[in-house]
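Hi Y.,

Following your request, here is the sequence exactly as I used it, all 119 residues.
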Amino acid sequence: MIELAKNHLKKVLEVCGANRNCEYYPCHFDGQVCLWCYCPFYPCEDEELGEYVEKKDGTKIWSCMKCFWVHREDVATEILREILNLTKDKDIDEALKLLDNHELMLKIKDRVKAKYPNR
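Below is the corresponding structure, written out as C-alpha cells. Let me know if you'd prefer a different format.
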C-alpha cells in the first residue's frame, strides 16, 4: 500500500473504528465505534439516551454518559448513510450549513432510532 493510502486509512480507522489510541477510549464501552465522538444530535434530550445532570454551579447540562446507541456499528453506519443521502449533491460548506439545523438532525436521529432502537 502506498504511504498516502496508509495515512488516509489510518485517519478512517481512527474516526470510524474503535480508536484505542484516544486518551479517552473507551468513553462509553469497549469496542465502541468512534465515528460520532461528538454527537451530531447533541443535545438530543431523548431520555432513553441521556439525562440532564446538575453542574457544580447548580445549572443543568445534558449528559450522554450513559448513551451507547450512537456508538453501535449499525447505528453509526445508518446515521452516516442518512447524512450522505442528504448531502450527496452539496459541497462541504453547503452540507455543513444544511446539517447545522438541530431539528433536521433530530429527525435523522428519530428515523435511525425507529430502524435501530436503543437496546
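The radius of gyration is 16 Å.

Thanks again,
Q.
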